[in-house]
Amino acid sequence: MNNIKQALKNIPRRGQHNFVKILCLGVGFALASVLIAKLCFEREYDTCYPDHDRIYRISEIIQRGSDPESMYGNTPGGIAPALKKYIPQITEATRINPCCTDEEMKMDTERRVKGNVYIVDSCFFKVFPARILEGDADDVLRKPFYCLVSRTMAERMGGDVIGRKLESTTIPGLVMTVGAVYEDYPWNSTFHDYDVMLSMATQRSFSYDGQDNLVGNDRYRSFIKVAEGCNPELGDFDATVKSIVNKFLRELKKEEIDFSLAFTPISEYTTRTATRNRCCPYCSSSPPWYWPPACSTTFLS
After folding, report:
1. pLDDT of 14
2. Going along 165-294, which residue ranges are E strands?
3. Is residue 223 within 8 Å of residue 164, measured between CB atoms?
4. What is the pTM of this model?
5. What is the distance between the alpha carbons of residues 223 and 191, in angstroms, rounded to a whole number?
6. Which residues pair with 167 in a beta bridge?
7. MacB-like periplasmic core domain spans which residues (predicted)?
């Protein structure tokens, strides 16, 4: 106790710069706390979904001629469903097509609201469940021009949103009907900033629809959910993937393009992948809402 009293008496003593030392120590502790919190946040990122350890993000690996091999976080739209069809260990597959960021939308009353719009297929909530507060999510994602909004987005719209219209100010003719409301995904989720989820059945009505392509239009974020005990990143179905590529993507060889796929656990994707959400440079991209069919092979059988 005496030592503590003596230390307190020495704090204001001139010439020892004790206040500066205490300030520096406090700043050091604060920075350390921030770094520890950031590390914990990243370690828990995308672990909020049931069976998250069985969900994988698909990336494409491309090498053209003598160019270095490159990995890209996006794929053609038909890759995920094609893998599910031919690989029994895959129980679910889903795709996301980014549509508009910070989009200004007109509401029924001409009032405007901003939000991020993503196009998702009908299997999205089978892979990434969320609490549905109003409406039927599965039914909404099967119908063109219907969408779901997050709880936060519904609050920005003023509440009581089922049946209300959202009209895009950048995509001519895109008027969405709100059919369901879902609880926001947590902060440590890839989907936390998803304000509006638009049915993928809609995109053929206002742009090129590449959701079934196996080649070209590589702008989809593709995910699979596998059976328990399956480890695709360890090569559990590499042979099947290779046979699918050889069977349906033969024209890539004519262009001297080697194409393969990589599978990363979703909980590790953000920290392990330096190329996340990059698109293949061999695919063109025009306005944010138009995706031309640069070279396309459609998965039909």
Report:
1. 60
2. 165-168, 175-182, 196-199, 213-215, 221-226, 257-265
3. no
4. 0.81
5. 13
6. 106, 175
7. 75-229
Per-residue tokens: 120: 């998702």
Where are the extended beta strands (E) located within the chain? 55-64, 70-72, 90-107, 112-120, 132-135, 146-150, 165-168, 175-182, 196-199, 213-215, 221-226, 257-265, 297-298
Which residue type, as a one-letter code, is found at position 95? R
Q: Rg of the chain's alpha carbons, rounded to an integer?
A: 24
Q: Tokens at residue 96, please?
A: 């996301």
Q: Is 273 in contact with 70 (CB distance < 8 Å)?
A: no
Nearest to 257 by CA among 229, 280, 223, 224: 280
Nearest partner of 187 among 223, 152, 141, judged by Cα: 152
Q: How many CB atoms lie within 10 A of CB 160?
A: 9
How far is it, in rounded angstroms, from Cα 113 to Cα 217? 30
